[in-house]
Write a structure and sequence with these properties.
about 190 residues; single chain; alpha+beta; 2 domains; two-stranded antiparallel sheet; three-stranded antiparallel beta sheet; globular
């Protein structure tokens, strides 16, 4: 499955039930792993930004990003997220980053078939990180597997199911999918 482990503590991807369908969902850790496989991306550092954090960035010929998270855990709640970013350190020593404010991420969410699903409502910070990481990966050195993962995610967001026969599923995965589909049909 793109060389990613589904439904494991690695949190690379999941086979998740969406209504009566079982679908592949690539997690942000899976996207980062696929980008690293290019050999050009050494490390990722994604994060959400909260209202109480010290945060600033600049684009252009001298790009930079500075983030000092608040130490007060009570101020790090989902309703106080103002954006998210992804930083990638490249093999040639350069750093690349992508920042998206909450309004930009919410625009992406609004186009998602699962915009009010449990992933967005129960894991908002992770979904913000996934959204910005996914956009960032489009500008980094890519592998065919990374581009395939992004295409799968784009199709799912558009309400189209990924074609299971086009995926390299591990042995037994099709039976897991069929089982999930059967259970959701009952």
């Amino acid at each position: 499955m793109l060389g990613l482990e589904p439904n494991t503590p690695l949190e690379q991807c999941a086979i998740a039930a969406f209504g009566k369908e079982a679908q592949l969902m690539i997690m942000y850790k899976g996207l980062m792993d696929l980008a690293r496989r290019s050999g050009e991306v050494l490390n990722f550092s994604p994060s959400v930004v909260y209202e109480a954090d010290e945060f600033d960035y600049s684009l252009g010929t001298d790009e930079w990003l500075k983030h000092k998270p608040t130490k007060d855990a009570s101020l790090r709640t989902d309703d106080k997220i103002i954006g998210a970013y992804s930083i990638a350190k490249l093999k040639n020593g350069e750093k690349s980053f992508r920042y998206m404010d909450a309004a930009d991420i919410e625009k992406l969410r609004a186009h998602s078939k699962q915009k009010n699903g449990s992933f967005w409502t129960n894991h908002k910070a992770a979904m913000y990180i996934k959204s910005v990481t996914r956009q960032h990966c489009k500008y980094l050195p890519r592998t065919p597997e990374l581009m395939r993962a992004i295409a799968i995610e784009d199709a799912r967001d558009e309400g189209k199911q990924a074609q299971w026969d086009a995926l390299d599923l591990p042995d037994g995965a099709v039976e897991v999918i069929r089982s999930a589909e059967s259970e959701s049909n009952q």
